[in-house]
TrEMBL record:
This is CC033 protein. Its main location: membrane. It comes from the Eukaryota. It comes from Trogon melanurus (Black-tailed trogon). InterPro entries: C3orf33-like, SNase_OB-fold_sf. One of its GO terms (cellular component) is membrane. Keywords: Acetylation, Membrane, Transmembrane, Transmembrane helix.
Length: 185
């Protein structure tokens, strides 16, 4: 029932046990998602606690994902302020939380943003900070993320998109010295 306003407020046991927390998105930054933690509510107790709870945002980074600039733009476009999301704690580095982020899409469907970014080719797979690379969970998550990235690579989406032959020829011609000299003339 406690509201966490800083990554340092979250107990170490929560991070070790990979607890899922609920929050509301405030905005997307280059470093990650600024999320307000929404604690479990107990009707009578919650109304009393709200008076003493301080305001603060948690910085949540997508674990195992190195975002491309197009990935940040996509997140800013797709995610709405005050959107409810779940984030599973995988690690903590200073004031930043490494998490798997789940967003509800409809009543019974939720999407893992970490996988969705990679599936769309808007980032690359990176090491999952905070988890020991010997753990079973690390390899399970890393495998899922690599599979999502491979789908984008196979379909040539996002950063994996290759220029067509005609685009390559056009670029080479426009950059040639002869064409540049003609333009100056």
């Amino acid at each position: 029932t406690t509201k966490f306003t800083s990554a340092l407020d979250i107990p170490v046991e929560f991070v070790k046990k990979n607890v899922k927390l609920r929050g509301e998105l405030h905005h997307v930054t280059e470093e990650g998602l600024a999320v307000e933690h929404v604690p479990i509510s107990i009707p009578f107790l919650t109304s009393i606690q709200r008076k003493w709870q301080s305001k603060g945002l948690l910085l949540v980074r997508l674990a195992g994902v190195e975002l491309a600039p197009s990935g940040v733009a996509w997140l800013q476009q797709e995610l709405k302020p005050k959107q409810v999301m779940w984030f599973q704690l995988l690690g903590r580095e200073d004031l930043t939380l490494e998490c798997l982020v789940l967003v509800n899409k409809g009543r019974f469907l939720s999407v893992c943003l970490n996988e969705e970014i990679l599936r769309r080719g808007l980032g690359r797979t990176a090491r999952i900070e905070g988890l020991h690379h010997h753990s079973r969970l690390y390899w399970k998550l890393h495998k899922k993320l690599l599979q999502a990235e491979f789908k984008a690579l196979k379909k040539k989406k996002g950063i994996w998109k290759e220029e067509s032959y005609s685009e390559t020829i056009r670029d080479r011609l426009s950059n040639s010295r002869f064409v540049q000299t003609l333009r100056q003339f």
